[in-house]
Amino acid sequence: xxxxxxxxxxxxxxxxxxxxxxxxxxxxxxxxxxxxxxxxxxxxxxxxxxxxxxxxxxxxxxxxxxxxxxxxxxxxxxxxxxxxxxxxxxxxxxxxxxxxxxxxxxxxxxxxxxxxxxxxxxxxxxxxxxxxxxxxxxxxxxxxxxxxxxxxxxxxxxxxxxxxxxxxxxxxxxxxxxxxxxxxxxxxxxxxxxxxxxxxxxxxxxxxxxxxxxxxxxxxxxxxxxxxxxxxxxxxxxxxxxxxxxxxxxxxxxxxxxxxxxxxxxxxxxxxxxxxxxxxxxxxxxxxxxxxxxxxxxxxxxxxxxxxxxxxxxxxxxxxxxxxxxxxxxxxxxxxxxxxxxxxxxxxxxxxxxxxxxxxxxxxxxxxxxxxxxxxxxxxxxxxxxxxxxxxxx
Length: 394
Ligand code: ADP
Ligand code: MG
Fold this sequence. Notes:
The protein is α+β, with helices and mostly antiparallel strands. The chain has 13 helices and 18 strands. The longest helix is centred in the middle third of the chain and has 17 residues, at 237-253.
């Protein structure tokens, strides 16, 4: 067995690959705890890079930049899901503690590997993926089982926020859609009758401890997360337990260190299906920043610094509202405006988070608001009221 490594204590540098909003909120959590942060991102001005003690502007595969990062940081994590596995391997070979490891990140980068992973452990987790079939060659289309229609064709790589997907009703449709997606490796998934969607957020520490947050119920709009509500209003306690047990089993199977999000579908017939995993703090876990003892970003710091994990206890019901760049425009992108922050900030139990992005764009994640309430209904009403202040349709 490898030697047990000591914790990395405040005052040290922690590294993060990717400078987006997840990197920024990670940086803020680390700084609150007295760490310094080094961000590596290819862009010149990034939400995390602009507040980190050290910002390295370079491609993820730039060996000199990775060396510079490794000199400064004894531990590195990633906020960007599609970071090349090679970058993580290179850092590890330079003696850096990389959490989660590249094998875990690679798994989440490829839907084919991901669905296989979920199917492989179904006998232990009691929750499997939706029925699916891999399409890598033209010939696979004729072999497609008929009971997968209507189905959703998803590219194996680089899909996010519903991008890289098409609904298909027949093999002819499938052939057209696969060509439109560029004939790249894809997974065809049976379209399920969803009742609602939830996600589980679990964390595994260096000491093998695994903790879980309460499951959030997620509403998407145009493929992008719109709200996350906790406790999940429609979820039965037995379903929540089953989901948390499955997510805990999955994180253990891959010896994952850090925060992992697992998305699930709850079907109209009450069955539960595992959809996908995200190897990092997740948008649906932003509620933890104001509603839990430890935020998901603090946990990422703790896990990568090899510290004991924090408490995941929910302190108050919450409904998180995502703020997209659309709010900065009146209809089209040529009529700019500033959202009515004064009205939002007039709500004492609405916690505003803005990511410091220089340029709003339609569909771009600009911030979120955690709407708290003493009871679940109050949190939800608060969320509806805040959304109305901003002109967001209910
Ligand atoms: P992304 O990586 O873009 O988040 P997902 O696989 O999570 O891709 O799909 C995006 C959304 O599409 C899901 O949140 C869900 O609403 C819907 N969806 C995906 N797969 C299915 C399915 N098999 N049946 C029904 N709805 C689905
Ligand atoms: Mg998803």
